[in-house]
Fold these 3 entries.
Entry 1:
Amino acid sequence: MGLVFGKITVETPKYDVLKRTTDYEIRRYAPSVIAQVTYDPSEFKNKKDGGFMILANYIGALGNPQNVKPEKIAMTAPVITKEEAGEKIAMTPPVITREEAKEAEKIEMTAPVVTKEKGKLVTMQFVLPDKYKKAEEAPRPVDERVEIREEGERVYGVVRFSGVATEQVVEEKVRKLKEQLEKDGVKVVGEHLLGRYNPPWTIPAFRTNEVMIPVEFSQ
């Protein structure tokens, strides 16, 4: 019942709040390791979250894990999507060691999940738990579409909101956040991300969502 009413009981990314106003926060996020997959939503009946199953299979969330080393990883949140124009870039091999293993590696489901849209393409990411400090420490995917990579420290302007994060709602949140950041002299340096902390069955009024915009910020 806790999940239905929006209770967040899983690991979330570590960050420091550099600035807080009545409208937004400036956060500095710690480095992390992510698993990601890039795909055309048309492969999944035009569902932008269609790649979720690929990553869920990688971590062993729904059955036999599609990786090479048996190990559980606790789920984290949020699910994050990023939209940007452009063409699909060929998927590079996972930035991890390539030693052979006899057994698949089981990982318990993790999040955040990050989705990047490049034109009609989407890149979905699961941020692995904090115990993974380097890409080579994470289990090697069996599915070559899954890439393991590291993200360094980054700074975002963030606004939190509840309800269903429709495209229209997100667009409006992004517009207002950009206006507020620019008004306060904070430089926007990238495209926004959408963070979704709850599963689909959470009552909309109890959902936690965040719009995150990369910024330059000096105290």
Entry 2:
Amino acid sequence: MSAFTSPSQIRAQFSRAMSDMYRAEVPQYGTLMTLVSDVNADVLAGIGAAAAGAAGQEARIEVERHGAIRVGTPAELATIRRLFAVMGMFPVGYYDLSVAGVPVHSTAFRPKDVAGLAENPFRVFTSLLRLDLIQDAALRDAAAGVLATRSIFTPGCLALIERAEQQGGLDDADAAQFVAEALETFRWHGRATVDAELYWKLRKTHPLIADIVCFPGPHINHLTPRTLDIDVVQALMPERGIQPKAVVEGPPTRQCPILLRQTSFLALSEPVTFRDGGEAGTHTARFGEIEQRGVALTPKGRQRYDALLNEVRQIITPAGDGSNAAAYRQTLESVFRAFPDDHDQMRREGLAYYRYKVGNTAADGADVEALIAAGALVAEPITYEDFLPVSAAGIFQSNLGDENRDALEASPNRVAFEAALGAAVSDELALYAAEQDASLKAALKALGVG
């Protein structure tokens, strides 16, 4: 038997295929890709990779993508977990989006190891519909009935998942076929599986419910390239014929970026036809997104971030039409002045995670702070690889239309999500802490003081 294709190689092949498919389906995504590439090149040419920080020195920046899908049933979620495992992607983090009025809870499938992230950091934010949050019992039953009749995976895809599990991997030919088969799950279908009446009832309850329930599969709803300067991309989108959402989600502009900042172009209104031949309508769900990633925060840092963001939201909430965008940005920047904007201070205060490596001077003693001051030990920010529930919900809400929807109360249920998934989700903060601790131990050992 020929050697197996590595999961990272399969992941890279799938990421490229997904990007090509989405570019063909949503031409503005191609325009967005070109804009992000241009901005990244300008940043690196203007200030150099070193000045751009860790992100500027990551070879992965040009291939980095994340996508998002929404599935309808526990069975679909469990099979998606198995599909992503073939590509070396595993569930990390639990996100309750009901806190922001979106009836799903989610995880991110991604590589967990440093080597896998360096080889290809493709990740997919995956949400499961919370049918229990649909208040109308008859409508809830109707949605469940529709979901029970569909199969979102091709027979070939299911067979190759099983083969990979049984033999421990896929050879090159099977890997290529797996990518082709898996891609079908994420493809757009303009024909709804329901009649027009049910579609509009579900859409009135919440547009996202209609998006999940009423189509043959969980079409990819956005792909996201990574930029080195999201503010410049946001400003330049209109010049490229792209309408951006009103505000950038996440923390404000900083010298030392933290966590994740996201923006997007507004979702397309796409024609749909209905099962009963009812009057054709339009569906709004698919869009293009851009992200800028910063350093991962510790539990202490995240607690401070969440408190500051909550303080901002108590003062002002960004309006969907952008009417208070400038005031929101000013408030965000003002409130977040309380969060240190210096890597050394964040590290010393235990607010963020850092990777340690040997510097260019000899060690003198074993004190970590003294070694850093002397240049014998170097601390580099660990990139945040995950997501923020308020930001994710903000992106979703801005791309689901403006119609009224039922109010939702926050109701996290990690136990139910993991039961549906068929596995526990990894704690993202524990992964960062382990990477930091392992790097410090290895660097001190290399210096002869560990």
Entry 3:
Amino acid sequence: MASISAEQTNNEIVKKNRIQVSNTKKPLFFYVNLAKRYLQQHAEIELSALGMAITTVVTIAEILKNNGFVNEKSILTSTVGTKDAAKGRIVHKARIEIVLEKSEKFDSLMATAAHQANGNGKVEKVEKVEKMEKKQ
């Protein structure tokens, strides 16, 4: 019987609350809203991106911080070697990981936002959001 180390368990937890951002696949506020949904389920989230998507991750983190939803916990930068099929060689890309933790005001801010939106139909139904998360 194989035993699971604490490090493996921690890595699995991180994957459940990690959002890998692309600057071409989804609009900016898709990721902002997704981060808020993840924060409703987890105490912290990790935003990560490669190359040109790094600016998108930084923007998402700043929006969440400036609106009081999160506190910045850590930022890690590195380079990753990826194989470029067209060039047939390894290309190094910049990588960023930003860990954000739920602020003390998070729950009250989310409740206020939901209350304000209830009258004008701008808040999506929970089922629709859950379907979007399952697709990923």
